[in-house]
Design brief:
With 455 residues, the protein is mainly β. The chain contains no helices and 29 strands. The protein has a domain of 163 residues. It comes from Streptomyces griseosporeus.
């Protein structure tokens, strides 16, 4: 932890894409299946895709599993737009089940179709769809998994094999035509969505949810709040009444708490990797339903609470939870600027540590934010979805700290004179580690990438 270093991705030919970071990456993979060093700096330069969809290194190939506007194989309507967070679950006979978020607002052109028993609020246009693919990546089914929700951004898998989808909004009933309050987490069964239905997990809080991670040993659920305008979001934990109780157990309720780092009101002020804080405190959220006041603005006593701008990705690794702050901008009211942080919280030691700080994006067009969705790769590294301006990439990071471009989006949603590319989201791997699934947000596209994954 005392060693810090700065490394930058070597230029990938004419694409000239890269990110920079400071920190010791190896600890991000401690205690996981991806515990072996790779000893390489990626898979080589990205090869331009003649079909103009996805550039990959030589030897890799992709298959488009689903695109917005196509017909759902269930016949329930069209594939919704705005593909976002996603996770893969093991099925029988080599099958993989995918649950995919649709971050649809009221202006979405292609909403998630409403289905009886799976619709929370008929006015909500967001939700999830579920796909099942076989070992050859042929799509066997594609159907609505939950509908009538709003702005389903990220979420996370549970140890018992379900998906928690998160609404990134705080709109109340009567706003934007909604008939019910929004800002909740919902549980989705990837195989039988009717088993979980469309029930908000109200005890887990009503706020601008982003992602979750479940402690597989204690059942505690950690939650990030993506509030990019001041007052910024909080990092939460939910203490369930029935920890690790399986599907539906979170409906039994529990306590929602917010993290307080003594003496640190804004995490953006911490810039040095390896900086650690002991004695982390957890304070009960006075009103998790935010009936009158948003949870991040409620009264947490004279010591206040710790805020951070743009809290996004969250995952469990080894014995710790990791969470991402995509960026911080003093122009928005943040106490300091950065292009991305990854934090580690160790619940046994009650210790918070800044493990990675991303530098400015070195894309040749416009500087932008670096990390958004992240996941551990079976080949021994980390995959990071870029979320910024200019070209959009999935970056790989090895345990030894090398950063390389794994994929580049080629779908231009702008104009030839002012090109713009849809961001990546929902990167995840099949249970056997042979396939990387990833979404393009706009136009909504789900890719399956195969090739010579090392390790």
């Amino acid at each position: 932890m005392s060693a810090t270093r700065r490394q930058m991705l070597a230029r990938t030919g004419a694409l000239g894409a890269g990110i920079a970071f400071t920190g010791a990456l190896s600890e991000l993979f401690a205690g996981t299946a991806a515990a072996q060093p790779l000893g390489h700096t990626g898979y080589g330069p990205l090869i331009p895709d003649p079909d103009g969809l996805l550039d990959l290194p030589e030897g890799f190939r992709y298959r488009v599993l689903s695109r917005e506007g196509d017909q759902l194989r269930s016949g329930e309507g069209r594939v919704p737009s705005h593909h976002d967070g996603m996770s893969a679950f093991r099925g029988r006979g080599g099958r993989t089940h995918l649950v995919r978020n649709h971050e649809n607002r009221v202006t979405a052109e292609i909403p998630v179709p409403t289905v009886a028993g799976l619709t929370y609020d008929p006015a909500g246009k967001g939700g999830c769809t579920a796909l099942t693919v076989d070992a050859r990546l042929d799509v066997l089914s594609e159907r609505v998994a939950i509908a009538g929700t709003a702005v389903n951004c990220a979420g996370g898998p549970t140890p018992w094999g379900t998906w928690l989808t998160c609404e990134e909004t705080e709109d109340r009933a009567g706003t934007n035509g909604y008939t019910k309050d929004h800002g909740f987490i919902f549980e989705v069964d990837p195989v039988d969505p009717h088993r979980t239905g469309a029930v908000p997990l109200t005890a887990m809080g009503r706020f601008q949810h982003e992602a979750i991670a479940v402690d597989p040993h204690r059942g505690i659920v950690y939650e990030t709040e993506d509030a990019f305008l001041k007052p910024f979001g909080l990092f939460y934990r939910f203490l369930p009444e029935k920890p690790l109780g399986g599907t539906g157990s979170l409906r039994a309720g529990g306590r929602l708490q917010a993290m307080r780092v003594p003496g640190v009101p804004d995490l953006s002020t911490i810039q040095e990797t390896g900086a650690s804080f002991d004695g982390i405190e957890w304070v009960d959220v006075p009103d998790p339903l935010a009936a009158q006041t948003p949870t991040r603005l409620q009264d947490y006593g004279p010591k206040g609470i710790t805020h951070a701008q743009k809290l996004e990705g969250c995952y469990w690794g080894g014995s710790c939870v990791y969470f991402v702050s995509s960026f911080a901008r003093s122009a928005d009211g943040s106490a300091a600027d950065h292009y991305g942080q990854i934090w580690r919280y160790d619940p046994r030691r009650r210790r918070l540590t800044l493990v990675v700080v991303f530098g400015p994006d070195t894309d040749v067009q416009l500087p932008g934010e670096s990390p958004d969705n992240i996941c551990l790769a079976p080949s021994g590294g980390l995959m990071v979805c870029e979320d910024g301006n200019g070209a959009q990439h999935v970056f790989g990071v090895t345990r030894t700290g090398e950063v390389y471009a794994m994929a580049r989006g080629r779908q231009n949603i702008g104009t030839p004179e002012e090109p713009e590319w849809g961001e990546f989201a929902g990167v995840t791997f099949s249970p056997d580690g042979r396939t990387m699934f990833v979404n393009c947000y706009t136009p909504g596209t789900t890719f399956a990438v195969t090739g010579p994954w090392r390790g």
